[in-house]
Amino acid sequence: MDVEDFREHGKEMVEYICEYLSTLEERRVTPSVEPGYLSKLLPQQAPQEPEDWATIMADVDSKIMPGVTHWQHRRFHAYFPSGNSFPSILGDMLADAIGCIGFSWAASPACTELETIVLDWLGKAIGLPEEFLAFPKGSKGGGVIQTSASECVLVCMLAARAQAIKKLKQLHPSVEEGMLLSKLMAYCSKEAHSCVEKAAMICFVKLRILEPDEKCCLRGDTLRQAMEEDEAMGLTPFFVSTTLGTTSCCSFDNLPEVGPVCKRFPAVWLHVDGAYAGNAFICPELKPMLGGIEYADSFNTNSNKWLLVNFDCSTMWVRDRFRLTSALVVDPLYLQHGYSDAAIDYRHWGVPLSRRFRSLKLWFVLRSYGISGLQSYIRHHIRLAKRFEALVNQDRRFQVCNEVKLGLVCFRLKGSDELNQKLLSNINESGRLHMVPASVNEKYVIRFCAVAQNATEDDVDHAWEVITEFASELLETQHLEKVASVYYSGVAWLVTRGGRTCLRRLALFILRTCPVASAIYGFLDPSVLVGAEGYFGQLGSHATPSTLPLTIPQNRRKTNSWHEKEPQRRIRSQILTDKKQPFL
Ligand code: PLP
């Protein structure tokens, strides 16, 4: 492809993207495919000869798109938002075209300097303490863009580990580092993201997962008690990861309590993970939720979640960049340059050496929307979540299960976990909405997140209509199953107790009349009952209610325009609903 081809196909691609994003609603939100679908459609080897662009794009439409989950769809309410906006897409396009690998200042000065500047802009807008910024005179702090929140937590834990080992080594110079490592203890709440556990696995340190309070919030006393116990056992607390806006239910650890506890343990590094919620602090009225940040050593938030920036763009700030980099510096000759002392080399701030020019898209977004535009976006999502919360609260069959502070509502049908599991899997299988579950206070809940950039009140109302439609149907089915079960129990009682021929005859008579009754109810498959008659015949006096076959066909689901557009096949791949482990 030469530059003229690129000019032409680039324009076509922009057209394709515009068409895709503006007609998303005509598609199912989740694909209707099963694992391995694509390998049946694509050849097993790369083509030996070049193919033309039109053929490749035709395959995008016919083979790739059918397997895509549409995260930008108005009916997508799963996980947290996946940031997306036109300025950000354009920023990524330009970064890809420049194609620099900005591991050091010298490797591409603008790449490094823009990152430092926009991270200061964003840090100020969020309301981080000055020590986290790079530019105030004498500051040791600064921000960096990492690939993911998981990576932010990992590098902070690595830095904390290096710092703790160094301190222990000073106290016990003759003890091997491996032995010192075995003494280190990290802490987080049960509600923390699983990436903390993964970081501890990678760092080869112990992690104590603490019980939060009834609002899913880690409290200072819980942490203090755990740290004191561990210290008394000869262990060294070295890292605490707190969360502002947990994944399951968007709860907030009590940072004003946890912070002072950490200060009592000099080796401890306090990290604050605000992967989703941290973006909201650009709104002045939400800044109080950041209270306690003055105790933290590091903070991260994903602009690529809730600030209209495309993945990847996970922003992280540290109070002392030298403590961070001391754990990660390696300095071969081929990477050195003459300005090492005067400039930031981001290769020392993370795991990878190579880095994309990610600050461009963040810069484009900050300038195109302005802080005020981004504040409106955040507030709009919160309003949508509040509307959804009000709808749930108006329906006595449901309950809201979290304190709705931002864009996430956790709710459930009053009833068993199984009932809610069934509800969610029915909804997800329909392809009309997509949500994921979580466990909140040991209960299975459904998470509804405001996700699409331009979602409206109508979208929320539509989602609620779909949810209540499925719920009504499920509850009705459940009720009918209960009625049927009582009926069968009665029949079974007659069969088991009815030793006399006349009673058994009566039972069989009831069974024969059953299809008539079921026709009146209009839901039971007569063959089940005919089958049951044979079953009774076989089992005779051993039949009990629990051994009776009982099936209620689920064939009465209503359809609407969303549904009718796609074949009614089962979706399997994308849904976490049926897995025991909730949303991770
Ligand atoms: N921390 C929190 C609070 C999250 O909600 C998530 C993901 O949703 C993560 C960390 C992990 O994010 P990433 O995928 O960027 O590693």
Automatic annotation (TrEMBL):
Q: Where is the signal peptide?
A: none
Swiss-Prot/TrEMBL cofactor(s) = pyridoxal 5'-phosphate
Task: Locate the coiled-coil region(s) and give their ranges.
Answer: none
- Read off the Pfam families from this record: Pyridoxal_deC
The alphabetized UniProt keywords are: Decarboxylase, Lyase, Pyridoxal phosphate
Write down which residues bear the modification named N6-(pyridoxal phosphate)lysine: 305
Per the record, the domain of life is Eukaryota
An annotated Gene Ontology molecular function = pyridoxal phosphate binding
Matching entries from PROSITE patterns are given as:
DDC_GAD_HDC_YDC
Which family does the record assign? Belongs to the group II decarboxylase family.
Descriptive protein name: Tyrosine decarboxylase
- Organism (species): Timema monikensis
For this protein's source organism, the top of the classification is:
Eukaryota, Metazoa, Ecdysozoa, Arthropoda, Hexapoda
